[in-house]
């Protein structure tokens, strides 16, 4: 008696795996173009449920396929196999499709799991994924780009955060970036410009010092943002973020406390590089801290 062919089910499950792979690639390509965060864990769960449902349907169709049903053939009594052989043969016929179906489901699940393995994107890819090329972005300096968090600190020294430097350099290449801050005197503004220049901000992507804006009040800060009408605004002041929520398409609130979102278009993160997705610890060692101190250049505090 001839055994049932095995190439057909293998081919069917290979086609299913290929279909799953192409389906997941199309979803990933679509989500990568979105300007906001995508919950890959939820997407993974939904995709897994869909794939399992399809696998069950294929398995059911396979079990009912007439190819694997052996027609009973009447044989003479002397040609009938022993009872133990019949029992063993029956078990093989029952276990075969079940084992194959389980293996096929496992193969499809492996395709899904492999697809959702973390992909190590480069910093330029991460920046472009969050801030689409050509979009206008406004960003506060204190607490985001600089280590200092208060305008008073700028009268003593200015420190560019090492962990955000690479991200900032990429943003100058792919975004229409504007940096802004409230200062107490003109000397503080000069210190900021010099620190950014020492960090190499003005030598990459055509970013110029004219795009670093200073004001003396928080209202002036808000006025800058509204006049520029950016696609993204990055700030540490929750009141300013809440005030601008009606006018700006997307905002990123930088805060160590991670407060609740004030609006659907407001995102929060502990730091800019964390929001982008850059490994903070590894990135912190990539660049030394760039410090520009007042006494080093003759400025009075």
UniProtKB/TrEMBL annotation:
GO BP terms in the entry: peroxisome organization
PANTHER family for this protein: OS04G0629000 PROTEIN, PEROXISOME BIOGENESIS PROTEIN 22
Transmembrane segments: 43-63
Name under which the protein is recorded: Peroxisome biogenesis protein 22
Record key words, sorted: Membrane, Transmembrane, Transmembrane helix
Pfam families assigned to the protein according to its UniProt record, in alphabetical order: HAD_Pex22
